[in-house]
Amino acid sequence: MPLIVKDYSWTQTETLVYINVPLKGVKAGKVDLFSTDEYLKVNFPPFLFEVILYAPIDDNKSVAKIGNGVVIFTLYKKEESIWESLALMNVDKETLQKKRENAVLKAQEKAVTDTEAKAIKKRENEKYALETMMKLEDEERKRIEEMKEQERRRATEELEQWKEKQRKEEEEKKAQQRREIQKLEHEKKKKKDEMKTYSKSVSECPRKRTTAKTGRKSEEISLPAPRSAGSIKIQFTPRVFPTALRESRVAEEEAWLKKQADARRAVNADVSELKDLKEEERNPDWLKEKGKKLFATQNYLAAVNAYNLAIQLNHKLPILYLNRAACHLKLRNLHKAIEDSSKALDLLTPPVADNADARAKAHIRRGTAFCELELYAEGLQDYQAALKIDPRNETVNADAEKISKIIQGTVPDSL
């Protein structure tokens, strides 16, 4: 049989009712509160406080606080008035039981309504989240398609410009050849005409001739003596190519010769640079270890120089490009980091178990550089490629999930 609490206190205004119920030493965790718009109950065994309110209250606005050994109710009246008492007077047990049952039914109905409302709200939230995610994915897909289309148009324009340039150069070469051929033909024709004129003048001037009227011989016509024999020295312009100048393509030959000269200068420069190095500095493995030590001391620029020299000595070692990519990441040379990681992946072929760790590092470093450039879709692809190589790497898995959330717009754009 519970003990009824009677030493409670209450006050009111026209809109509010305040009730203080002492807990009599019972801990707050053992207090059970139950209320409707007409009924109020506080159960903290072995004590019980219940009341059928004098008038209805707004149960949704009303609140209860437990602390310092007391329960404080703040009840909002549905109608502004001053109550004559807190509870209805002269309520028999049957009416009290009926009020209790009605309160339980209302509480159950409210719980069902709240549950349905929460379910509806949850479905609406899930639908909104799905629609938002689909919208973000569509926008990202469109952005990527637009980038691809812009790149395709740019490449097409550059190709068309190159073709037009080649066509103009070809036309210019053909026009130059035609002009040279016409010039040669003109010179040949001119010489031929001169020979014809000379031959005709010789044939029309005999050494002797007679007059028709007198029959006497005219005086002899003197002709120039034959030319003495001699030699003419001809000097040809020195040429690298065996073809004649009129048959060659001068622009292409000059471009080829320039490339050969540049290549020779580069080789000579490299040889002169290597001559100044010590014996151990010509060893790529020694330079690789030196780069690692410089990286460990945070001297990233010096480490890059060491790897540059090592790659100059041997450009087939993928570890050199992989380590230099790490240095470029520290120096914020993001595009160079992407380039070195890609070069390392090209050299790490075929993909086998021995180079799996290096391939995973290359994907992670390239993916990090992409994300730093806010190219999250490309970065996610590299992280996923690294997870295919090492699926148990929890750090890479967590980073991949974070990048995916950034793409979906659920977290700030930062890694």
TrEMBL record:
Name this polypeptide is given: Dynein axonemal assembly factor 4
Name of a matching Pfam family: CS
PANTHER family linked: DYNEIN ASSEMBLY FACTOR 4, AXONEMAL, DYNEIN AXONEMAL ASSEMBLY FACTOR 4
SMART domains given in the database record: TPR
UniProt keyword terms in alphabetical order: Cell projection, Cytoplasm, Neurogenesis, Nucleus, Repeat, TPR repeat
tRNA-binding listed as a keyword: no
Record-annotated CS domain positions: 3-87
SUPFAM superfamilies registered for this protein in UniProt: HSP20-like chaperones (SSF49764), TPR-like (SSF48452)
Region (Disordered): 158-225
TPR repeats: 360-393
Source organism of this protein record: Huso huso (Beluga)
Subcellular location: Cell projection, Neuron projection; Dynein axonemal particle; Nucleus
Location (main, coarse): other
Domain of life: Eukaryota
Compositionally biased spans, kind Basic and acidic residues: 158-197
